[in-house]
Automatic annotation (TrEMBL):
InterPro entries assigned: Acyl_CoA_acyltransferase, BioF2-like_GNAT_dom
Start and end residues of each BioF2-like acetyltransferase domain: 160-301
UniProt-recorded name of the protein: GNAT family N-acetyltransferase
Short name of any one Pfam family annotated for the protein: Acetyltransf_6
SUPFAM superfamilies xref list: Acyl-CoA N-acyltransferases (Nat)
Species the sequence originates in: Caulobacter hibisci
Amino acid sequence: MKIDVIQALQLSPEDGQRWIALQALQPRLDSPFLSPEWAKAVATAQGEKGERVKVAIIRDDDGHALAYLPVRVKAGVAMPAGAPMCDYQALVSTPDVAVDPRRLLAALKAQRLDFCHMLADDETLARHGRGQADSWIVDVSAGYDAYAADRKTSGVGVLKDIDKKRRKVEREVGPTRFTAMSDSRVDFDQLIAWKREQLLATGQTDLFKTDWVGRLVDDLFARRDADFGGGLYTLHFGDELAAVHLHLRGAHTIHGWLIAHNAKFDRYSPGLLLFQDILKSMDGGPYTRLDLGTGDYRFKRELSNARQTVVFGFYGAPSPATFVRSAAWGVRQVAEALPLGRMSQLPGKAMRRIDLLRGLH
């Protein structure tokens, strides 16, 4: 077994096709974030710094590619390509392939590899996780009506509530109008403005102050490839924009990415109405899953009928970088085990904020 490491933008067409073929072998890998096009889009958006976005290619003795892992390497530490904008990581491989992570680090010339949304069944890195979370999925492979019937049978009334709110808004405001794969730049710009307002109001980092994030989002909004790109979905109440989502599209999965709504329509839950419209629009098309991502939100739990677990953590060789990370995790785990209320969450929040800033810069 041999490991080649190349810059993402130097990936050959043959390797790109092989990568996509490996994704198709396992439904769990059907995510736009695990596509070669994601790694290349990130590298392009990051400009001169895009040379740090690399792909480790694991080959057998005959030179055939068995697996691909995209990362960004900086100051001896590897992290997910496109973090903090990347919602999944995994070794995209043939089934049952595992790689010695020590060999990965050596090939990447890194002391440590961090991950935050590694698929829990990844044979190479997931066992080094320090925690986990659920990613919520809506599977509509049997069609929207079958999905809705299943939700009703399961005793979940979210779709009934959405229908009531839709009738209410149509009585009080005006007809609802849904647009899939919109090319409206005005609505796209409004989404970004609303997201920035939301980040400011909640005391979070404004991701869009970082130039490469803006370039990446712009590029994916405009991209219309059949098996990769963005998709702008909008909902109007009468003539007024009520909710807008920019999702990423893979071969058969739409992944919820950037979502926002008009605060004046809060009482009608326009974001939920838009999710329902998207699910209905998937009938008869190539997409069978709407991935809502992680986050323990009620609407995700109620809409989803499937889930997959992701883990966060790191793997490191003996080094200063690994020692620092291990110490930080030690403090975090001790704090989270103590009955300190919100105070126990502070080390974890600090680590996530630091990782976000590392990814942006």
